[in-house]
Amino acid sequence: MTTARLDEIITAHSIREAPLMPILNEVQAEFGCIDEEAKRQIAKALNLTRTEVHGIVSFYHDYRETNAELPIIKLCRAEACQSRGSEALAAKAETMANGRASIEPVYCLGLCSVGPNAMIGESVHARLDEPGLEALIREL
Amino acid sequence: MRIAISDDALAIACGADKLAEAFARAAPDAEIVRTSSWGMQWLEPLVDINGMGFGPATPGDVAAILDGGSDKAIGKIEDHPFIAKQQRLTFARAGKTQPLSLEDYTETGGWVALKKAYEIGPEATIGMVTESGLRGRGGAGFPAGIKWKTVAGAPGDQKYIVCNADEGDSGTFADRMLMEGDPYCLIEGMAIAGHAVGATKGYIYLRSEYPHAIRKMETAIKASAHLVSPFKLEVRVGAGAYVCGEETSLLNSLEGKRGEVRAKPPLPALEGLFGKPTVVNNVLTLAAVPNVLSEGAKAYADYGIGRSRGTMPVQLAGNIKQGGLYEIAFGITLGELVEEIGGGTESGRPIKAVQVGGPLGAYFPPSMFHLPFDYEAFTEAGGLIGHGGIVVFDDTADMLNQAHFAMEFCAVESCGKCTPCRIGAVRGQETLERIRAGGRGAGACEALPQMHNAKSSERSLEDEVVLLTDLCETMKFGSLCALGGFTPYPVMSALTHWPEDFGLEPAS
Ligand SMILES: Cc1cc2nc3c(=O)[nH]c(=O)nc-3n(C[C@H](O)[C@H](O)[C@H](O)COP(=O)(O)O)c2cc1C
Ligand code: SF4
Ligand code: FES
Asked: Where are the transmembrane segments (chain B) (predicted)?
């Protein structure tokens, strides 16, 4: 994580009202995590304590403190997908991924009549069954 | 030839982009447009060729569709019973217009309502919203006009309109469809609200799980800035916390803080964003306003029953044959929605339960399908209509599992501010696990001489059920917000209607 790039992100948002979340969102998207150094630098720039920034980063599910090692498949585990078989699929997903992807839960993607659903980055995938998930893992 | 395919995220997830490419290759002379979705989701991707529908279509169907010999033909889309029987006011443009086309929006009655609001002035605008009977579509059902009036009357140099687009409830997608399919409608609704209460700035708090909606809203805001000026709009993206849909948690998040719930009072209407008077309304509430202004308050209020006026964009989801968006006047029964319109389960098995209103909503058995879709009727029946999502489960569902999930979800998403929710949800999961095990033996810890008040004998299944019921009472009455306060709905409704799944005698 380069300090210069981080400064750019902070500066770009600092004219907005309450710039912290937009900054954190962009740092997370660009660097894949918000690490200790980033927390300190953001805290300093916004005149917050490192503890305050840490408290916020650790509150939200989207923020990571370390980089993910594998590509992430977010598999929806909420009720509507459960009713369409997401739990059986989820039980096998880890084995199917076999070290090529990390399977994480997400609670609802707003595609609730065509589940089981998954999201990879910003792309969404519906009507998943085992072959469908296999194909997603293969294409990663 | 005009070939329309939706660019709604659900259609895309079902393969709409690849299908559109296949049509572009096979019919180079045709005009291929990307429109909003009709909301017949079981048919997505749905192809609309001069008004005739084909779906669910794959690239393999393209040749047959163009030849006119496809078995995916559903006839004229507007005549399909799923569409023809709806009363689409908020979703009047669904399936018909290109979401980001200002031309389409203007041609279909766009901006008429905003002009009218400027003409009649703030007071009369609020009057119309009040008369229409429009209530908040985010869950609590609070009258929109009264909220606006409070904000309009509150002293403040700066006021805000905040649109709650956090739509975290499982089984709901109407906010997403509206933002992706008709973004200018939401913008117009927010501009009207701004004019009515004297707010010059609006925020749309949009969940990060909706990247397509984020992009469309941001583009639409830029494209229409000159039309709503001096009102300014900005999208703020969430970071994956369900509780940030609760309005005060949302405001904290917007302010760049932990999304912890605030105690009320003060009401956000008086001290909201940055301590200023703030309207917080759901996407569907704000998007219903242009219709109310352009067609009249009475026309809107003529739909519905009792104190539930107007229409509700109902979302049919889960294990249902014909899932999608169904906008209809309040008063339609649960059974009509699920069985007649939805066609029962997709698996073909009998319906066991439907959950209405998201993860905090109750589970209802088919014996309660006579319930009319109405705020008060659902409250009386021990549930809520919430944001209007209905999730269908077939007879393979295990209601103890569903109750356990409700507690698990509450524990994962709790903001941690109050004890009944933060601790209760964890204890709830443990209690349900012991219920699954049929009770528990005497605990070593409880048997210690220091533990004067603890029960040292074993606990039966019935004892555990009493504990669970007691815990749910505590959560219901002791929680600061509805996350902890309403989690007992799915849990207790599962226990009440399906005791056999908990190892008890079936309900008589
Ligand atoms: C845990 C929790 C989650 C909520 N999630 C949402 C949501 O995603 N969208 C929404 O509009 N309202 C949600 N609400 C309701 C809001 O607190 C608030 O009542 C609503 O935004 C007010 O707008 P309305 O009057 O237009 O419905 C939630 C409430 C709770 C307790
Ligand atoms: S009920 Fe739960 S989410 Fe709501 S304020 Fe209490 S701890 Fe936070
Ligand atoms: S429950 Fe899985 S997409 Fe909504």
From this structure: none
pTM passes above 0.80 = yes
Nearest CB to A79 within list B236, B255, B355: B355
Asked if the C-beta of B208 comes within 8 angstroms of chain A's C-beta atoms, the answer is: yes
Fold classification of A72-139 (topology level): Glutaredoxin (3.40.30)
Chain B CB within 8 Å of residue A44 CB = no
**CATH of segment(s) B399-502:** 1.20.1440.230
Contacts of A54 (CB under 8 A, 6+ apart): A39
Instruction: Report the distance separating Cα A48 and Cα A62, nearest Å.
Output: 21
CB contact A80 to B (< 8 Å): yes
- Cβ pair B284, B175 in contact under 8 A: yes
Among A25, A56, A114, the residue with its CB nearest the CB of B258 is: A56
Residue B211 has pLDDT above 80, yes or no: yes
Pick among 2.60.40.1120, 3.10.20.600, 1.10.1780.10, 3.40.50.1110: CATH of B307-394: 3.10.20.600
User: Over 80: is that where the pLDDT of B445 sits?
Assistant: yes
Supply the pLDDT for residue B452: 83
Quick one: three-class SS letters along B80-138? Answer: CHHHHCCCCCCCCCCCCCCCCCHHHHHHCCCCHHHHHHHHHHHHHHHHHHHHCCCECCC
Query: B102-301 has which CATH code?
Result: 3.40.50.11540
Q: Which CATH code is given to the segment(s) A3-59?
A: 1.10.10
Q: Which is nearest to A74 in space by CA: A103, A114, A99?
A: A103
Asked if B145 and B130 touch (Cβ cutoff 8 Å), the reply is yes
B363 contacts in chain A (CB < 8 Å): none
Q: Answer yes or no: is the ipTM higher than 0.95.
A: yes
- Calpha distance B80→B63 (Å, rounded): 23
Domain boundaries defined on chain A:
3-59, 72-139
Is A116's Cβ below 8 Å from some Cβ in B? no
pLDDT tens digits along B126-156: 999 999 999 999 999 999 999 999 999 999 9
Q: Which CATH class is domain B2-84?
A: alpha beta
Cβ contact, residue pair B317, A113, below 8 Å: yes
Structure tokens at B63: 């040749």
Strand B160-165 relative to strand B201-206, pairing? parallel
Kindly identify the ligand whose nearest atom is closest to the C-alpha of A125.
Answer: 3
pLDDT of residue A1: 60
Domain ranges of chain B: 2-84, 102-301, 307-394, 399-502
Distance (Å) from CA A110 to ligand 3 centroid: 5
How buried is residue B33: exposed, middle or buried, by Cβ count under 10 Å (0-12/13-18/19+)? middle
Residues near ligand 2 with C-beta < 6 Å? Answer: B 243, 261, 414-418, 421-422, 479-481, 483-484
The first and second tokens of residue B325, run together, are 């968006």
**Dist. CA B435–CA B449, nearest whole Å:** 27
Say which residue the tokens 């299908």 belong to: B19
Protein residue whose Cα sits closest to atom 6 of ligand 2: B418
Residues in chain A closer than 8 A to B393 (CB atoms): 83
Choose the residue to mutate in B172, B197, B247 for probing ligand 1, maximizing ligand atoms within 8 Å of C-beta.
Answer: B247
Closest CA to B395 of B366, B429, B359: B366
pLDDT digits (tens, 9 = 90+) for B347-376: 999 999 999 999 999 999 999 999 999 999
- Distance, CA of B356 to chain centre: 10
A17 at interface of B, judged by CB pairs closer than 8 A: yes
